[in-house]
Amino acid sequence: MQQRLSRVTTTDGTELAVATVGEGRPVVYVSGWLSHLERGWELPPERAFLEGMAEGVRLVRYDRAGCGLSPATGRPPSLDYELEQLAAVVAPLGPEPFDLVGASLGALVAVAWTAAHPGTVRRLVLYGGWVSGDAVSPPSAREHVLGLVESHWGLGSDVLTDIFAPDAPAAARARFGRYQRESSDAQTARALLALSYRLDVSDLLGSVRAPTLVVHRVLDRAAPVAQAEALAAGIPGAELVVLPGRSHLPWAGDAPELVATIRRFLGLRVARTAPGTLTPRQREVAALIAEGCTNRQIAARLGIDERSAEGHVERILLRLGFRSRAQVAAWFVEQQEAGRGEVG
Fold it and tell me: Does NADP show up as a keyword for this record (predicted)?
């Protein structure tokens, strides 16, 4: 898949970058705290998650003001400003209802939009969200993190990466730390994180009328699962699905199961490749890993560039739930031996 970049403008002149992937009915994705449409697409596990979401539909994402490809403005972050930006993004989609997926901070924005614009949302998915920012962590912890982001953005981004994606391979965590720093400056990052902590949508939940799925990982280190339970309890008829895992970022941990859960709720076909299996190309790469090949050597053997080889390796780690190449090599050898045993 390839993403197509465009721009929209809010009523006050704010310019936003928008990315569209796939074809079909629109699924609008409101990201968490920070985003960068290009850097996210270049991060193999995030791209795998997005491609899984976009199969058979038109996935629409955007960088909020001051993040990624969207320039900063003089306006401070607020829920009203978030809704103005989302309005500009969905305006070109036409009058038909769309599916709305909100992750982390985006879940609160999605709740507020659905409550304020009944009939525009076909189905609503809330991942890793919360009702009240006050309940996410103690005040002392919040102030510590805000201060760290403001005074030492490099260290702050690394600390937050460990909180957001403890299940991701080390290489993916390192790249995501850089990705966060490239997504915004320290001032914008702090302001958006502070918004996350102060938002409270408890008064809006009862006004949500769209069919709603609340999905959360049981040991999410950034947002306690009790907040997901509160979201589901407050939205009439909402369905709650709690998945295993510790990671807050949707693409970390068992992302294929998360994608399958969301797609089933949206009435979309679920990928036939079962978790723990590899595509033919991924098996080729796994075989070369078992031979001890580096990414550069894999690229040369397969006639692809080194970045593509790196992407294949990270997708294999994600698919198999492993954290190292040694685990992939051992798995591949076991598969080969099991296959020879069956033939014998």
Answer: no
